[in-house]
Design a protein that fits this description.
Layout (H helix, E strand, L loop, with lengths): L21 H13 L3 H34 L2 H4 L1 H44 L3 H7 L1 H43 L1 H10 L4 H34 L1 H6 L3 H27 L1 H25 L5 H43 L20 E9 L6 E10 L4 E6 L5 H9 L6 E6 L2 E2 L5 H6 L1 E4 L10 H6 L7 H10 L3 H6 L17 H15 L3 E5 L7 H14 L4 E5 L11 E6 L2 E6 L1 H7 L1 H9 L5
Parallel strand pairs: 3-8, 3-9, 6-7, 7-8
Antiparallel strand pairs: 1-2, 1-4, 4-5, 9-10
Helix pairs in contact: 2-4, 2-6, 2-12, 4-6, 4-12, 6-7, 6-8, 6-12, 7-11, 8-10, 8-12, 11-12, 16-18, 20-21
Length: about 600
Amino acid sequence: MLYPFILCFMTENTIDIKHLSPRKVFSRIWKLWGRKHLTVFITANILMLIVAGTTALYPIAIDYAFQFLADKEWSNIILIPIVIILLTLIKGGSLYQQTVLVNKIVHSIIADIQTQLYEALINLDLNVINKERAGGLQSRIMNDVNLMKEAMIRSCNNLIRDLFTLIGLIISMLWLNWILAVAVLVIYPFATIPIIFIGKRSRSLSSSLQADLAQSASFLTESFTGARLIKSYQLESEQTSKAFNYFSKLRKLFVHLVSTRAALEPVMEIVGGIAISLVIILAGWQIISGRSSIGEFSGFISALLIAVGPARALGTLNSVLQEGTAAANRVFAGIESRSLVIEDDKASVLENPKGRVEFVDVSHSYSDKETSALRDINLEIFSGEHLAVVGSSGSGKSTLINLIFRFFDPEKGKIYFDKKNIKNLKLSSLRKSIAMVSQETSLLHGSVYENIAYGDKTATAPKILDAAVKAEADHFIQKLPEGYNTLVGENGENLSGGEKQRISIARAILKDPALLILDEPTSSLDASTEERIKKALKKASASRTTITIAHRISTIIDSDRIIVMDEGKIVSIGNHKELFASCYIYKKMALLQNINS
C-alpha cells in the first residue's frame, strides 16, 4: 500500500516555534492583517474615547449634584438626572458600536490567519504533516487561533478602552482632589510586580497546555477514525484508559493555569482596598479641617470605585496577552513552515506529456531507518509502457512512486519526466500529468459527483458520467438515495470499500493522465466486479504509461515489463516468463501464489 508507507524522513524537519514578545506578536498581526482595517479601527477608537469620556464625567456630575443639593436650587438639581441619562445614552450607544466594530475587525483578521495557516500546513511535505499528526495541526488552526482571538479582543477592549477610561477617571480625580489622586497613584503601581510575574507564568503554562491540547486532539482524531479497529480488537478499555490520562493531564494544566490567573484577583482587591482606606483617612482629615467637602469626597470615591473595574481588567489582561502570545508563536511557526520540495522560479509546464519517466543514479534513505530505501536506481519507463513493480514490504516500491510525484526529493540522483528534470517542472503541471488509484481509497466529504470531478475541475457532466460508466460505477451510483448527489460522508464512510474504489477509478479516468499509477486498485472488489474493472483499467491504460505496484502476481502477468525490488535495489527486470525462469525472488513469489510460468 502506498500511503501508509509515507514516513517522517527528516526528524529535524518539524514546525519550529519561535518565542516572540507580546509587543512583537501584535505588531506583526497589525502589519500583516490589520492595516486594511485602519478606518474601522480609528472609528472604534473614537467610540472608545467617547465611552471613556462619558464614564469620567459621572464622578464630576455627582460632585455637582451634592453642591446643588447643598444650595437647595431645584432648577439646578433637575439638570443632574438629565445629564446622567444623556451620558448613559451616549456611553451605551458608543459601547455597542465599539464592541461590534472590534469584533468585526478581529474576526476578519482571525479568518485571514486561519486561511493562511491552513494554506501553509496543507502545502507542507507529507512527512511533516504525518509527523505533526492531524489532530495537532487542527489544534493550531482552531484552538491556538481562538486564544489569539481572545487576546486581540481583550487588547482592544481593555488595553485601549479601559486604559482611556482609567486615564479619564484619573483626570477627574485630579480635578476633584489632587492630593487624594496622588495618594492613589502612588499605591496602584505596586500591583504591577505580581502582575508581570503571573503573566510570564501564565504564558509558560499556556504554551504547555496548547501542546497537550494538540496531542489530545490527535488522539481523539485517531480514535474515531480507527473506531473499527478499536472495536474489532476490543480495545475500548485501553483507549479509554489512554483518554483518561490525556484528560487528567489537561485537567491539571487547566487547574494550574486558572489558579495562576486567579491570583491576580486578590492582588487587585488588596491594592484597591488599601487605596480606598487611604483615601477615606485623607478625605476625613481634609473634611474635618475644612479643606474639602462631602460632595468632593463623594465624587472622588465614585471615580475611584468606577476605576476599580478598568484597573482590574488591565491587571488581568497581561495574563491573557501572554497566553495569546504563546498561541500566536505556534500559529506563526505554522505559517512560516515551508516544504522542502521547492519549486524553481523558472519551472516550466509540461506540454502534451507522454508519461516517460527516467531514474538516474537515484538513492534515498529515511533518517529513522539505518538502511537505504532506494540504492542507485537506474530505470527508464517508456511512454505507453505498462510496467509492474513487485517486491516484499519495505523493498522500496512505494518510495519509487512517491519520488515520481515529488512528494519529496531524493538524497542523490535525478528523476526525469518526458526528458525534463522534475525539479525544473511546475509541481501543478507534474502532478496534473499523473493519476493514482490506491488500495487505500481517499474520498473527501461531499457528493459522489464532486469526488469524481476532482479528477478534472473543468470537466462537463457528460464527461464525468462517462468516467463513472467506464469505471463500472454508474450502476451502483444510480441506486444511491440521491444518485450522483449522494454525500459520501467523511472519507467515504457511507459507501462500501468496492464502491469507494470504483469512484477513485472514475476520478483517475476523468483526469486522463499521461502516467497512471495503480496500487492494487481491485483489491476491495468482488470477483465479477474485479474482472469488469480490469477491463476498464486496461482500456484506460492503453494509450498511457502505467505503473502497477503489485502484491498479486496474477494482476501483472500481462505487463510489458516487471521490475523486482529487494532492499532498495532493482534486482531483475523482464516479463513474467523471463523472470520466472531467471529470478529466484520472483519465482518464489509466483509459486507461493500458485502461479507458474
